[in-house]
Amino acid sequence: DWTDSCLDCPYGTYNLGAGYIPTGIADRCNPHQTCAAGQYLSGFTTTNVGTCTVCATGTYKDGPGVFDTVCTAHASCVAGSYRVGYSTTTTGTCEQCAQGTYKDSAGAYNSLCTDCPSKAIGTSPLGSSSRDSCVCNTGYEKSTDSLWTCIDVDECTTSGSNQHNCASEATCTNTTGSFYCTCATGYSTPDAGVTCNPICGDGLLLGNEACDDGDLASGDGCSSSCTVENGWDCVNGTSTSADTCICATNWLPAGTCNIFCSASTNCSSQGSCHPTLGTCLCNQYYGLREDCSVRVTPVQAATFSITNVTIENTVKVSSLPDGVVIPAGALSSGITITVDLYESSSVDTTWVTKATAAGISFFGSVLTLGPSGTTFSTPVTVTFSVSNATLPAGYTYGVYKYDFATSDWVQVSGATIDTTPTGSSGGEGGTISVQLSSFSTYAVFSYAIPTPAP
User: Fold this and answer.
1) How far is residue 149's CA from residue 40's CA, in Å, rounded to a whole number?
2) Are 324 and 368 spatial neighbours (Cβ–Cβ below 8 Å)?
3) In this predicted structure, which of 27-41, 122-136, 328-342, 427-441 has the lowest mean pLDDT?
4) Is there a contact between 109 and 88 (Cβ–Cβ < 8 Å)?
């Protein structure tokens, strides 16, 4: 019935004809189609079916929806995160910026995280929302501009946490992003200049060295570890020159410096120290004690000044029949000789004990010849008077020197004994003559004649 009125197709339907249908005629308008995910229906009307169109960039549709479902814009992620996995069919998710990157604002939906500046790669934590979260690598620091970069630190001139750790004896050299240390001449290092140790034995007095004489030998004053050895002084060493080591005060002899002798401490201020033995050379009247501590008055004494050393000189006292004969040339220069005779009872009791222990007994006076320690290029001759009548049977006698170095009596070899009751030299009861190479303390001792070996 074409007289019926025509109606518009309802929303959501279409008729490709006029877009309306006669009254009472059903199913003349068709429903609009739904588009798949990622597409939306465009251009549809009551007279047009429309077209499924792909969602525009930045939008998505995650399902068919209804015919007029449109694509939705992707949302921006907050600072410190970025969108991943998005497409026209899904909006994806917001994830934290990776370590070493940052995003300082929400930005667009597809804003990405920015890498930390060069030389700060990988230093910011997860989800960083600021460039300042990035940390420059060791050896670099932030520049002062707003969009800062990492610039080289000169560790050799800066202070604070970036300052170099070179030893004070080392030179710092800056390199890009780092530095190196070079120990000064005369130092070695186990750790690339962080520690500089002086080289012992190189002849340069440096660091904690107490001395450096240019070698690693011990026993010459400066030990193999560059410490001053006992009895020595090491002087004049500098950072450019070696030490010279000499005996310390009161240490003897030169070259070994292993004996201590002080005239005041060891020799009671009544003598001097032997330059090589370190024993006391006692003054006149003090020679009957090792430490020169007791003054003893001699029973006979003589003093003789020798001025002409090119002739033979003789010093006489009554108990020395032929005196002390000093050959021509035995001395190199003039000297005043002292000859003192003492009773054997005047000697130190320890000397008597040592004699007894050695099986010898005093058999006459004790003689001190001075200055003590005087030596002769040609031996001098001394002749002692003895009393043969008091000599026990089976005994003989000899001349002994008291050795201050060993603290013992030592027999002088090569003695000549004259037993004539009235000695041909004028001595009474007999004589014994010996040749001496130095002045010291001497005495005649008797001792049992050794029994011949079978």
Assistant:
1) 47
2) no
3) 427-441
4) no
